[in-house]
Amino acid sequence: MIEVVRKYLNKNLFYISVIITGFTSLLFGVFYNLFKDNMFERAASDFLEGTGVLSAYITESTGRPSETNYFVIILLISICFFFIISLLMHLYTKKSYFKIFNLLSILNIVLIIGLALSSIFISVSVIFTYVILILCFGFYLFGLYQCLDKIFNLDKKKRIISMAIFVIPVILILILLKLFV
Predict the structure, then answer these.
(1) What burial letters (b/e) apply to 110-128, b meaning 16+ CB within 10 Å?
(2) How far is CA 167 from CA 19, 22, 81, 137, 149, in A?
(3) pLDDT for 68
(4) Between 88 and 75, whose confidence is greater?
(5) pLDDT in tens, 112-124
(6) At CA 70, angle to CA 66 and CA 75, rounded to 5?
(7) Spatial separation of the C-alpha atoms in residues 95 and 90, rounded to whole Å
(8) In angstroms, rounded to a whole number, what is the distance separating the alpha carbons of residues 58 and 126?
């Protein structure tokens, strides 16, 4: 895997990295839309079961943003996320911005696979969906750590801080999404 990533980084295919990042963001938007719909429908049907017209009224009057708004919000957040994280890692590690961005985008293939599988299985089992996402995110972080070590030759302290630069915003975004969207 390291050799494949190294060859990709040496070719400096930034435009392909932008396409991969855009596709990843698109899948994040689709997954979040499916997840939000699936969770809201289950909660609403459990809470409002048997209320008929009242159920429809409450669903219409809650003022929830439309699915398109959720999709656009997640799409923009995830695109901005990858560009900003690349910038932060570039500033911290003093490595080329384009190489850092290319590294994050080639590793996004793991996230693409995880998001596609999660989107397919979300209606089957939410727990299975979480397991898939956690495993894919773990593989992503493992790949990032290995690439920072073997390709960029960063010492252990810089690798760990670089990982924190990536993970802490992910946690903050998830908390903010839970609170506000």
Answers:
(1) bbbebbebbbeebeeeeee
(2) 22, 20, 11, 10, 17
(3) 67
(4) 88
(5) 999 999 888 888 8
(6) 145
(7) 5
(8) 25
Instruction: Kindly give, in sequence order, each residue whose CB lies less than 8 Å from that of residue 25, ignoring residues fewer than 6 positions away.
Output: 74, 75, 78, 79, 82
Residue corresponding to tokens 């963001």: 25
Q: Are 102 and 17 in contact (CB under 8 A)?
A: yes
For every residue of 114-126, DSSP letters joined together read HHHHHHHHTTT-H
pTM, entire model: 0.79
Coil, strand or helix at 168: helix
- Map 6-71 to HEC letters: HHHHHHCCHHHHHHHHHHHHHHHHHHHHHHHHHHHHHHHHHHHCCCCHHHHHHHHHCCCCCHHHHH
CA pair distance 81, 21, nearest whole angstrom = 10
* C-alpha–C-alpha distance, residues 13 and 139, integer Å: 23
